[in-house]
Amino acid sequence: MEHITLLIGIVIVTALVFDFTNGFHDTANAMATTISTGALKPKTAVAMSAVLNLVGAFLSVEVAKTISGGIIDESSGIRPEVIFAGLVGAIVWNLLTWLAGLPSSSSHALFGGLIGATLVSVGTHGVHGEAVVMKVLIPAVAAPVVAGLAATLATRLTYRIGRHADPEATSKGYRAGQIASAGLVSLAHGTNDAQKTMGVITLALITGGVVAPHADPPLWVIVSAGSAIALGTYIGGWRIIRTMGKGITDIQPQQGFAAQTGAAATILASSHLGFALSTTQVCSGSVMGAGLGRKGAVVRWSTAGRMVAAWGLTLPAAGLVAAGAALLADEGTWGVTAVAVLGLAVCAVIRTASRRKPVTHANVNDLDGDPASGPEMAVGPDMTVGPDMAVEPQGAVTAAIAAVIPPPAGTVAPGAPSDTVPGTPATA
Prior knowledge:
Layout: H1 6-36, H2 42-56, H3 62-71, H4 80-99, H5 106-121, H6 129-161, H7 167-207, H8 219-235, H9 238-247, H10 253-273, H11 279-293, H12 301-329, H13 333-354, E1 383-385, E2 391-393, H14 396-404
């Protein structure tokens, strides 16, 4: 076994930086709906999520093994420079989508970065195409659809079960359920996303001869990766939390509970099977499903469309950035240095741009960014305030689905007698 070289050390540090960006990029997955409904205060929510992300990192290593020996062929001659270039591509794309407030997939940014850098430096034989299709692409399409359908059905079921209950008491109960389900999503996120960085670090150690091929991540790798993603989670990616919690649809406690429970079940199942799933896509699909499940709710398809477009662009875009970085890194020490300097410069520019209109825990629920104005609400059954404060009409897809799905029990059509408990309003 060789000692860790300077280059491998740089790769490890870069991997932990990516893990940190993954943490604040994906905080919204667990806590956006909990924050938007007021079930938890923003800082409390991200602190809870950070702790559970750290715990989840110790529960499984199946996804880490998929990264270190499944997607990339560790015996194909891949070098630490290639991994470094792949990480730079993933970090740059993560920060760009964070600046735009788009909940894109950190996982696919990492996959795209590694694949792009490997194709340029090693060739097609360095990538296991079948593993990419079976464990990345197919889950990427199926998981948000499955989670969305589950959330739609669960939302309708929760409204039907609580049709005769007191709305205020029901909301309190579901807020408590949201806290529990958000904790489960955070735990699941640690079992899936933290392991991706573990897998990358393990791959770097294998290429440097520090650990044996097909080895599990060493304990110090698990601890460092879990800590990095937990710290990033605690920092809070408030821009994406705003989009997920307020920009896609207006979430009520019942919907938040249904969305988070469906997402947690999907992520935990995929972690058990070793699928390197995008938790962002799962949770976003659940939120959209929860919006479709409530009669009268409006899914903002313009925001959802931008988000889905970012999903499709993530893998190739990160791959292109990483491919360019790999071309430079292959030139030797000066090339690696140039990649590092350029990467830092891009990150600095993005950071500066984000300060022009900051989003923090104080204004995360205010779509106009002004805490003094209070959180924005829907302005009518068919009209709602969009993320850019423009009034957005009910989308054609939402209207069509609403027309064929019967309303939850307790919802009263105009002019119809109420069948709710006397003295209580109808459920929306």
